[in-house]
Amino acid sequence: MRARNSASKQQAEGRARSFTETGRRAQIVASAIDVIAEVGYQRASFAKIAQRAGLSSTGMISYHFDGRDDLMREVVAEAMRVADGYLRPRIEAHESYAARLRASIEGNLDLLAEYPNHLAAIGEVLGNLRGGDPGMVAFTEGMEAILAFQVEQVRKGQAAGEFCDFDPWVMLRAIRAAIDDVVRRARDEPGLDACATGRELADLFDRATRKTP
Amino acid sequence: MRARNSASKQQAEGRARSFTETGRRAQIVASAIDVIAEVGYQRASFAKIAQRAGLSSTGMISYHFDGRDDLMREVVAEAMRVADGYLRPRIEAHESYAARLRASIEGNLDLLAEYPNHLAAIGEVLGNLRGGDPGMVAFTEGMEAILAFQVEQVRKGQAAGEFCDFDPWVMLRAIRAAIDDVVRRARDEPGLDACATGRELADLFDRATRKTP
Amino acid sequence: MRARNSASKQQAEGRARSFTETGRRAQIVASAIDVIAEVGYQRASFAKIAQRAGLSSTGMISYHFDGRDDLMREVVAEAMRVADGYLRPRIEAHESYAARLRASIEGNLDLLAEYPNHLAAIGEVLGNLRGGDPGMVAFTEGMEAILAFQVEQVRKGQAAGEFCDFDPWVMLRAIRAAIDDVVRRARDEPGLDACATGRELADLFDRATRKTP
Amino acid sequence: MRARNSASKQQAEGRARSFTETGRRAQIVASAIDVIAEVGYQRASFAKIAQRAGLSSTGMISYHFDGRDDLMREVVAEAMRVADGYLRPRIEAHESYAARLRASIEGNLDLLAEYPNHLAAIGEVLGNLRGGDPGMVAFTEGMEAILAFQVEQVRKGQAAGEFCDFDPWVMLRAIRAAIDDVVRRARDEPGLDACATGRELADLFDRATRKTP
DNA sequence: AATGAATGAGGCTTCATTCAT
DNA sequence: CATGAATGAAGCCTCATTCAT
């Protein structure tokens, strides 16, 4: 496998990846998630990631990924896949928009308690993107799409009379920022009760969004 | 001037800095703030900062500052000095705790409109600290002290019946995170209306904190 | 190969080094010995060593060795290995303590004639250690151990009536110093007859140590 | 005063130095001796020397001395002046060549006890010379002249029947090396009794040189 | 697939020196 | 005389990447 054929491109081309190939890639991505969560995006060097993956050479990472950006894309994609698998059922278990918002907030922090590194990795990678970064643009757009979906949901909630009047974009960014902040705090404060903080945040944003009679 | 005598130490020793010395240091700090805001903490190399400051070599930065940490300390100190000078009068112009909270939020984003790089630099530096970073610990503690003061204010507001019942730490961190998020967005979206977003955020957290009868 | 796993550590871990790995390391060490002997410990920069080893960048040295100290450790270890292999049989070929002392002195200078750089490198590295140098402490202790062994031999010689009464430590340090001095002289005086000087020194210290009836 | 007119050149030109000029130069030389003795020749940077001399800028050293080599020349000249003033009367107080040799050895180590840094500085500077060093050649020649004088004395002692037959050059270099070794040891071992070691060394070389009946 | 080796760029620091004031 | 500032070189180190095997 040539590195320049990144995983996504290959799938688009319809060629199946071998088991080992998939395995190694996944292993590297998993190690990258851990390392990024531990030392941050910039300090997560190929050397550290290879070491954690049990590889004796950073060359293998360059072999499997078409550069650092490609690896980081996979890191976020994998972490988001896990997050989505965890959150979607919990959110869709509720009917009302307000309950779903609460489930989303609390779910994120329950997820943090269960997978301490995934949300941190997402935050690190996305937080270190710069406007001009080529190759990562599609990424920002992906996140934007998710946010746009949530905005749509909130708008429906407002239309349904569940939420008061506010700018959904500002609200949802504030929620995301508050969650990410807890994720960062959890990194340095092992004793932090993420779930309790999640409930507190859910209460906070419930007051900020609900329609007062 | 010996670099290892950082500005604060020198002042503590009572020795006055020469005009030029102060000037170059300030110029380097100002350049650092700009570079950090533009490319981020990790990518803000001495080379880029020196170039922006009109210096021909990175050696001059090592000459004026006792290493990267020392420079970053000055960066945050300077940015916080500016922010404090801007925000304090605006906040203290109000009597009620709720009004002061609103003034704080809106003030931060007005400040962002006026000094687009200072808050970004603070966020970048503090956001890239890791638990074990020696030499920067005093910094985290400094921020914690500011937050603790605000927590105390909020508690008084709760006691005074202006605010409803919530965990002040969680609330204030959420506010800080929301503001920092706007700061980051402003970096990549030149068209963003920071002041309007400030008012929206102030409304949001007003609903989240105010006592409902 | 990870540089931070120095050769000794790796061997302790039981992992075999590849042929090339050993080769390059050995080549770098050999080049370092030459450069150190030529320009001295402090002026033996990675750049010079890399150049002599046919490497295009100093990065390779950092890749193979965990810093300057690690390289210097290997330099001394290798030079001492060679010296030991050369001297031990020559010394142990003799029975009496006096003859062994003579063999040791003459052997050192014969070794100098054969390997002009090894003793010089040892002297340069050890001579540039300072008390507080961390990481090199084990080294000084290693040399001290060798000296302590020789002291013990001399004491036995005294007990056996071969040597007169003197402080073995002072004597052995004087011998070592005299040998090292010749090593340094040989560096700048190509015409020096090391072996003849060795015999002269052996005579000198024979008179200084032998029991007079 | 222009640095390029070094002290010696100026005296040769017959121009008197001002008091301050002489004072500063002497102060810098004295500081250099201390710093060199403490951290070694190579690590004795202008910065450290200036700091110890109470100067706030290394520029003053470049102003007073025509480069590092010039300073080092003065360091050795000054240290040798002190050593000569101390040793000469002690040596000349004796008549026999053997007694003078003993006085020389013991005197050097008494000197070490009294001026712990001067002999160390001499040894550091001279020990770091390399053959090709331009500008320092005159220096080695100076030392060689001293040694040549001592050699002459020893030859006379041999002719007078006080000493046995040996190569005076080898003997005197061995003595010098042994003394310098004690000087280096004294640097790292504060408890060392230099005078006692001096007596032991004097005994050693007395046995090595005296005529046995 | 995997490894170890190599590269070249870039990072921060220290140094001796020069210069305007 | 003295200072602080500036320079340019050199030093060691880390990094992502490439390549032969």
From TrEMBL, chains A, B, C, D:
Residues 1-20 are annotated as: Disordered. The keyword Repeat does not apply. Signal peptide: none annotated. InterPro entries: Homeodomain-like_sf, HTH-type_TetR-like_transc_reg, HTH_TetR, Tet_transcr_reg_TetR-rel_C_sf. Pfam families: TetR_N (PF00440). Gene3D superfamilies: Homeodomain-like, Tetracycline Repressor, domain 2. Residues 1-11 have a biased composition (Polar residues). Residues 28-75 form the HTH tetR-type domain. Keywords: DNA-binding, Transcription, Transcription regulation. This is TetR family transcriptional regulator. It comes from Streptantibioticus parmotrematis. The lineage of its organism: Bacteria, Bacillati, Actinomycetota, Actinomycetes, Kitasatosporales.
